[in-house]
Amino acid sequence: MKLYTLTPNEGSTKNRKRIGRGTGSGRGGTSTRGHKGAKSRSGYKSKIGFEGGQMPLQRRVPKFGFKSLNKVEFKPVNLDTLQALSEQHSLSAINLEALVSHGIASKNDKIKILGGGELKAKLDVTAHQFSASAVEAIEKLGGTVNKI
C-alpha cells in the first residue's frame, strides 16, 4: 500500500454546491435565493436583533429595577473569619492591611464586620463599618472597635 493509493471512503465526501453556474447546473437563475426582496440582492445585510418589523425582544420585555450610582458596596467579613485569622497568624489587632495581606479583602474594598460565628480572642478591630452584633461581641471580650 502506498500513500498515493489512499482515497476517502465511498460516500464520505461530497462536491460543494456550485451556485450561479447556469440553468443546466440546477442552481442557476435565482441561484437558490428565491424571487425578489432584499435577501435576493447582493449587499444584503440585516441589523443584529432585527425581527422583520416585529417588535424586537429587547423592546417587548418590560424594564424594571434601579441601580443607585451612590450606593456603597461593602465586603462582608464575619467574626469567625477574624477568629481564624488571629489564631493562624497570632494577631491581636486586625486592620485593613492585615485583611489585604492575608487575602480576605482587596485594597480597594470597604469592609463591614458582621456578627456571624463566634469570637473567642480579644481583638482590636479596625474597619469601615460594623454590625451591632459584631460590636457587642468584640467589646464583650474586652476588644476595641475603630471605624475608619
Descriptive report:
Keywords: Ribonucleoprotein, Ribosomal protein, RNA-binding, rRNA-binding. The chain has helices spanning 57-60, 79-89, 96-101, 132-140, and strands at 74-78, 93-94, 110-114, 124-127, 129-130, 144-147. It has 148 residues and is an alpha/beta fold. It is elongated, with a radius of gyration of 35 Å. The termini are far apart.
Q: Strands of the largest sheet, in order across it?
A: 1-3-5
Distance between the termini: 81 Å
Q: How is the main sheet built?
A: 3 strands, parallel
Approximately what portion of the residues adopt beta-strand conformation? 5-15%
Number-wise, the strands total: 6
Structural class: alpha/beta
Average pLDDT for all residues: 93
Number of H/I helices: 4
* Low-pLDDT ranges: none
* Helix share bin: 10-25%
Tell me the series of helices and strands, N- to C-terminal: HEHEHEEEHE
Q: Please state the CA-atom Rg, rounded to the nearest Å.
A: 35 Å
Overall shape: it is elongated
Subunit structure: Part of the 50S ribosomal subunit.
Biased composition (Polar residues): 1-12
Biased composition (Basic residues): 33-44
Family: Belongs to the universal ribosomal protein uL15 family.
